[in-house]
Amino acid sequence: MGKITKIALVGDSTVCDYPQASRLRGWGQMLPELFDSRVVIHNAARCGMSTRIYPGELWASVLEARPDLVLIQFGHNDSHAQGNPESTDAATDYRDNLRRFVREARDAGVQPVLVTPVRRRLFDADGRPTNELAPYADAMREVARKLSAPLVDLHASSGALFSRLGESQTGDFTVNVSENPDQPGRTDRTHFTAEGARAIARLVGDALAALFPPVLCQPNC
Question: Which CATH class is domain 5-211?
Answer without folding.
Answer: alpha beta
